[in-house]
Every structure is written in structure tokens, then in C-alpha cells.
Design brief:
With 80 residues, the chain is of the alpha+beta class. The chain has two helices and five strands, in the order H-E-E-E-H-E-E.
Length: 80
């Protein structure tokens, strides 16, 4: 299982709706970025719960707010 598949699986177990691109409120978008990073965007999702989940999975993250107001996480995971 790849790192991105593992992250999607763990997020879906917690009840999040995972998509390639955000199209509705309450969705989480996960896709591959450059250099082995994973890009995750959220819209109207509890940031504290996401942060706790990423910490539990031992992910290193950088957070930025996009122009449209969505939160974007750049994630680097250790081996799964």
C-alpha cells in the first residue's frame, strides 16, 4: 500500500469523504505533490481533528491558506 493510499484509508476510517478535488463543503482532497509530498486540502472540516490524526500517523506537515480560503496541508510521511 502506498503512503497516499494509506492516508486515504485512515481518513475514510474516520468518516471523511475523500476526493481528488474539492467540489463541496466538508470534503477532503488528497493528491500527490512533487518530491514525494502529499497535498491535502480541506474545506469546512475541523482542523484540530485533522491535526490530531496527522500527528497520530507521525506526519510532518506544513499548513497554508489558499486564496479561496481552503486550508492546504503539505505532508511528508515516514515509511508506512
Amino acid at each position: 500500500m502506498s503512503k497516499i493510499d494509506y492516508l486515504r484509508h485512515e481518513m475514510e476510517k474516520k468518516g471523511y469523504h475523500i476526493t481528488e478535488r474539492i467540489s463541496a463543503s466538508g470534503e477532503v482532497s488528497i493528491r500527490e505533490g512533487r518530491g514525494g509530498h502529499i497535498i491535502m486540502e480541506i474545506e469546512n472540516v475541523d482542523r484540530d481533528k485533522i491535526k490530531t490524526l496527522l500527528n497520530d500517523l507521525q506526519c510532518r506537515t506544513m499548513i497554508r491558506v489558499k486564496d479561496d480560503g481552503n486550508i492546504q496541508y503539505i505532508i511528508k510521511m515516514s515509511s508506512v
